[in-house]
C-alpha cells in the first residue's frame, strides 16, 4: 500500500518537475492540440448542418464535379465559402471539392434543375474555439510561462503568495561557540542571550528587559551568520533565517506577508531566533535610495518594525538577530530602542584569532605533522574567517591534485598566495616590454624597502602575473607585531611606494601607468599624517579629519577651511616631490644592485627576501659602500614567536 502511494507521489513529483522545467514545451503541445481540434471541426465538420449526410465523403476534382452535374449524377449541391459538397443521386456518397471561381456553376445547376444552397462553413464549435478558447489558451499559456519564470527568480512564486515556506529556512543548528573563533568581544556580547533563551522565566520574574534585536555588524565572511547560529545552537532553539536580498524583485505585499509569517512561525516555536541576513537590503534608509522610494521594500521594512514592536518579549522569547556590512545606510528607525538597539561588531580576526580559526578548519583535514600554523596566520593579515576556511580547503585540493598522502606547509602557503593575490597565472603572456617595466618597477620597491630604515622587510618579489590587474608584486612583512607606526616608518612606507615609479624613470627612462595604485596609497599616507596624526608643520596638532565609523573603513568627516585645504594640497605635493627625489638618488646609487635583481628576476621570476638582501650586500661590498641594510636577522627569522600582524603588498 505504502509503496504504491509512494510510487504515485513520485510520479506526481516528476510531472510537476517536468511542467516546471519545460513550460514552453508544455505550452507548445497544448497549442498544437487545440489547433488540431480546431482544424478538425472547422474543415471536416465544415459542411455539417444540412450537409451532414450519413454517407462517406469522397474528394474529387472540380472538373469531375462539373462532369457529374452534367451527367445528372448529383441530387443536391451545397456551396460553401471554400468548399463545395454534392450528394450523389444514389445517396451512397458525398462528393467534396475545393471551390473554383466559376460563375457558370449556378447556371449549370439550374439548367439541370439540381437544388443548391449556400452553407456556412464555420460551425458553433469552431466559432467558440476560434474566438474564445484559443485566445484564452494563448493568454493562459503565456501567463503560466511568465509566472513559472518569476517563481524561479523569486524563489517562492505567485502560487505561494504569502507563504514563507521556501524563503525561510528553519533549522536547529548544532553550531557551538567553540566553532566561532577570533571574535571574542562579539561572543561576550551574545552569551547572555543564550541564557535568556534557555531560562526565560528567570528574567521574566525579575522584570528584566532583554534586547529583542541584535545587529551583527562586520565585513563579509567574518562569521556573523555563524555566530547567530551558534547562539541558537548553544541554546538549542530553532533558528529561522531569511535573507534581505530575497525580498528584492518580489511583488508588492509579498515581502510584508512573508515577514508576518516568519514571525508567526517563530512565535509558535518560541523560544527561537529569527535571523535576517543582509538586512541593509530592506532596511536601507529612505533617503539613501536616489531613485525614490521602493514600495515593496518600505512595506517589508514597516512590517518588520511592526513585528518587532508588537511582540512583547516577555510572552514569547523570540530574539531577532540581523547582519549587515553596511550599518551606516540603515534606516534610523531600525536602530531605535526596542528594535535593533544593540549592535555587535564582528570584526576581522587578529593574529591569535586567525590561528584559532585556522585550527578549527584544519581539524577535518589530514595535515602533515610539521605544520606551522603561526606562519600561515602571519601571512593572512586582514583576511576573514571565510577566507581562512577557503585557504585550508584550497591547500587540501592542491595536495590532492599532487596525489599527496597529507597536506603540507607548502600547500598551505601556496593556497595563501593564491587567495591573497588571485590565481597564479603562469600561462598569461606578458609582452617583453611590459615584463621589463614590471621587473624594474618591482626591483625598485624591493631595494628601497631594504635600504630604508623603518621600512618593512621584503619577503618575496615576483613578476609572475596574478589575478587580472597585477603584473607583479612585492610582499613586505614587518618584523614585530605592531599597533603604532612612528613617523619615520610612515615616511619609509611612502618611499617604498614611490620606488616603483622612480625605478621606471631611472632605468626605463619613461614612466608607465603601473604606479597609479602606489601613488594613491602614498598620497593617502601623507594626507593621514597631516590630517589625522598631527605629524606635519602645516596643520600642527590640529586634526582635520575624523573617522566616524572606525570599523569597515568608515567615512571621514573633513573639518577645515578652504585656506587650510589649499595649504594641505601644497604640502602634500611638496612632500611627495621631496621623497621622490630622495628615492631617485638612492636608486641611482644602487643601480648595480637593481640590475642584479632584474637579472635574477628574469631568470627565476620570483626571488625571496634573503636573495634580495644578498644582492644588495654584495653590491655594497664591491662598491665600498657602508651597508644600509638593517642588521641581518634572516637566520633567526625561522623561529616564530614574534607575531607579525601586518602584511603589505605593492602590486606592479
Ligand atoms: P558572514 O555571515 O559574516 O558573511 P559567515 O558566518 O557566513 O560570514 O562565514 C562563512 C564561513 O566562514 C563560516 O561558515 C565558517 O565556516 C567560516 N568562518 C567565518 N568566520 C569564522 C570564525 N570567526 N570562526 C570560524 N569560522 C569562521
Ligand atoms: Mg552571512
Ligand atoms: Zn608598484
TrEMBL record:
Per the Swiss-Prot or TrEMBL record, the active site comprises: 442
Gene3D superfamilies attached here?
1.10.8.60, 3.30.720.210, P-loop containing nucleotide triphosphate hydrolases, Peptidase M41
MF GO annotations: ATP binding; ATP hydrolysis activity; ATP-dependent peptidase activity; metalloendopeptidase activity; zinc ion binding
Where is this protein found? Answer: Cell membrane; Membrane
Membrane topology recorded in Swiss-Prot or TrEMBL = Multi-pass membrane protein
Q: Highest taxon of the source?
A: Bacteria
Q: Which UniProt keywords apply?
A: ATP-binding, Cell cycle, Cell division, Cell membrane, Hydrolase, Membrane, Metal-binding, Metalloprotease, Nucleotide-binding, Protease, Transmembrane, Transmembrane helix, Zinc
Matches recorded under InterPro entries: AAA+_ATPase, AAA_lid_3, ATPase_AAA_core, ATPase_AAA_CS, FtsH, P-loop_NTPase, Pept_M41_FtsH_extracell, Peptidase_M41
Keyword Metal-binding set for record = yes
Q: Name one Pfam family in it.
A: FtsH_ext
The cofactor named in the record is:
Zn(2+)
- Location of the region described as Disordered in the Swiss-Prot/TrEMBL record: 623-652
One GO CC term on file: plasma membrane
> Secretion signal: which residues?
none
Q: What does this protein do?
A: Acts as a processive, ATP-dependent zinc metallopeptidase for both cytoplasmic and membrane proteins. Plays a role in the quality control of integral membrane proteins.
The annotated subunit structure for this chain is: Homohexamer.
Give the protein's recorded name. Answer: ATP-dependent zinc metalloprotease FtsH
- Species in which this protein is naturally found: Campylobacter blaseri
Q: Supply the source organism's classification.
A: Bacteria, Pseudomonadati, Campylobacterota, Epsilonproteobacteria, Campylobacterales
Amino acid at each position: 500500500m505504502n509503496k504504491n502511494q509512494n510510487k504515485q507521489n513520485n510520479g506526481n513529483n516528476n510531472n510537476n518537475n517536468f511542467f516546471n522545467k519545460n513550460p514552453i514545451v508544455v505550452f507548445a503541445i497544448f497549442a498544437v492540440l487545440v489547433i488540431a481540434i480546431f482544424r478538425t471541426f472547422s474543415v471536416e465538420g465544415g459542411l455539417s448542418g444540412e450537409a451532414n449526410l450519413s454517407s462517406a465523403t469522397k474528394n474529387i476534382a472540380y472538373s469531375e464535379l462539373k462532369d457529374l452535374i452534367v451527367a445528372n449524377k448529383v441530387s443536391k449541391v451545397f456551396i460553401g465559402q471554400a468548399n463545395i459538397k454534392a450528394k450523389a443521386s444514389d445517396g451512397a456518397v458525398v462528393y467534396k471539392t475545393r471551390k473554383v471561381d466559376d460563375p457558370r456553376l449556378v447556371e449549370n445547376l439550374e439548367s439541370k434543375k439540381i437544388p443548391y444552397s449556400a452553407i456556412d462553413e464555420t460551425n458553433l464549435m469552431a466559432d467558440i474555439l476560434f474566438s474564445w478558447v484559443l485566445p484564452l489558451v494563448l493568454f493562459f499559456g503565456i501567463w503560466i510561462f511568465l509566472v513559472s519564470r518569476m517563481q524561479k527568480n523569486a524563489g517562492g512564486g505567485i502560487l505561494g503568495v504569502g507563504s514563507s515556506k521556501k524563503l525561510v529556512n528553519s533549522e536547529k543548528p548544532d553550531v557551538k561557540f567553540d566553532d566561532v573563533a577570533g571574535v571574542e568581544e562579539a561572543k561576550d556580547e551574545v552569551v547572555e542571550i543564550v541564557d535568556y533563551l534557555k531560562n526565560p522565566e528567570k528574567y521574566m520574574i525579575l522584570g528584566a528587559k532583554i534586547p529583542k534585536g541584535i545587529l551583527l555588524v562586520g565585513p563579509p565572511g567574518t562569521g556573523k551568520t555563524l555566530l547567530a547560529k551558534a547562539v541558537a545552537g548553544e541554546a538549542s532553539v530553532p533558528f529561522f533565517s531569511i535573507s534581505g536580498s530575497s525580498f528584492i524583485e518580489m511583488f508588492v505585499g509579498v515581502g510584508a506577508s512573508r515577514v508576518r509569517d516568519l514571525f508567526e512561525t517563530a512565535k509558535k516555536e518560541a523560544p527561537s531566533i529569527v535571523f535576517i541576513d543582509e538586512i541593509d537590503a530592506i532596511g536601507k534608509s529612505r533617503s539613501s535610495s536616489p531613485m525614490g522610494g521602493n514600495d515593496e521594500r518600505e512595506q517589508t521594512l514597516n512590517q518588520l518594525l511592526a513585528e518587532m514592536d508588537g511582540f512583547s518579549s516577555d510572552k514569547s522569547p523570540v530574539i531577532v538577530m540581523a547582519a549587515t556590512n553596511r550599518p551606516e545606510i540603515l534606516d534610523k528607525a531600525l536602530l531605535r530602542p526596542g528594535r535593533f538597539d544593540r549592535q555587535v561588531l564582528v570584526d576581522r580576526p587578529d593574529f591569535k584569532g586567525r590561528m584559532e580559526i585556522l585550527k578549527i578548519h584544519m581539524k577535518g583535514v589530514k595535515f602533515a605533522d610539521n605544520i606551522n600554523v603561526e606562519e600561515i596566520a602571519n601571512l593572512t593579515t586582514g583576511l576573514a574567517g571565510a577566507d581562512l576556511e577557503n585557504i585550508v580547503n584550497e591547500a587540501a585540493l592542491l595536495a590532492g591534485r599532487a596525489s599527496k598522502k597529507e597536506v603540507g606547509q607548502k600547500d598551505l602557503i601556496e593556497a595563501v598566495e593564491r587567495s591573497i593575490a588571485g590565481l597564479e597565472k603562469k600561462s598569461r603572456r606578458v609582452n617583453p616590454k611590459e615584463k621589463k617595466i614590471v621587473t624594474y618597477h618591482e626591483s625598485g620597491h624591493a631595494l628601497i624597502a631594504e635600504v630604508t630604515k623603518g621600512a618593512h622587510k621584503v619577503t618575496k618579489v615576483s613578476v609572475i602575473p596574478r589575478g587580472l590587474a597585477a603584473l607583479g608584486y612585492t610582499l613586505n612583512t614587518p618584523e614585530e607585531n605592531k599597533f603604532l607606526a612612528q613617523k619615520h616608518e610612515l615616511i619609509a612606507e611612502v618611499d617604498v611606494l614611490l620606488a616603483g615609479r622612480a625605478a621606471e624613470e631611472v632605468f626605463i627612462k619613461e614612466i608607465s601607468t603601473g604606479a597609479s595604485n602606489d601613488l594613491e596609497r602614498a598620497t593617502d599616507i601623507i594626507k593621514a599624517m597631516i590630517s589625522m596624526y598631527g605629524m606635519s608643520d602645516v596643520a600642527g596638532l590640529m586634526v582635520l579629519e575624523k573617522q566616524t565609523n572606525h570599523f569597515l573603513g568608515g567615512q571621514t568627516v573633513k573639518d577645515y577651511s578652504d585656506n587650510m585645504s589649499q595649504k594641505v594640497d601644497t604640502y602634500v605635493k611638496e612632500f611627495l616631490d621631496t621623497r621622490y627625489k630622495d628615492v631617485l638618488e638612492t636608486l641611482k646609487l644602487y643601480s648595480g644592485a637593481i640590475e642584479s635583481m632584474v637579472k635574477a628576476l628574469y631568470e627565476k621570476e620570483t626571488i625571496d627576501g634573503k636573495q634580495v638582501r644578498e644582492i644588495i650586500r654584495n653590491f655594497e661590498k664591491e662598491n665600498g659602500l657602508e651597508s644600509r641594510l638593517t642588521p641581518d636577522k634572516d637566520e633567526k627569522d625561522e623561529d616564530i614567536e614574534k607575531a607579525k600582524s601586518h602584511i603589505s603588498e605593492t602590486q606592479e
